[in-house]
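Here is one such protein, fold included:

. . .
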Amino acid sequence: MCSSLADHFCITMLRLCHALAVALLQIFIFSENQAFAKNINFYNVRPPLDPTPFPNSFKCFTCENAGDNYNCNRWAEDKWCPQNTQYCLTVHHFTSHGRSTSITKKCASQSECHFVGCRHSQDSEHTECRSCCEGMICNVELPTNHTNAVFAVMHAQRTSGSSATMPSLPVLAWVFMLLWL
């Protein structure tokens, strides 16, 4: 590769090219991390990595009689909903001052989701709001009034199949570097 007359120059140039390639790779990796770090949506929960038990499987936050929404979501069981359910149900009981007294979240069938909305109990001075939603772990928030105590379903058709994914920038940089050297 290098002739005996230009060995020193050739080795120096190879080291310089290698250092440049490593520096460019690090810049690509850093720039990709910077570009995506500010776009994180903490409500956008990724689908689980474990295999689904049946087509169109989903999970919901699940708890029974929790004292607040944070602890309900934090300690929710991580298990697949049964096949006879299609939605996530949230039942929120709270006082006239807005203090939560009981939160229940679970997987639900369509018949359990017919009674969404808020109802005020005159005897106990408590309000119960119920909401249902469709989608993977969609029941993050609590229903607190008639605006958000709804039956929310997706109108897009679900399809099973693979979607093509674009390789990440670091992978492309590594391939380029390997081809270059």
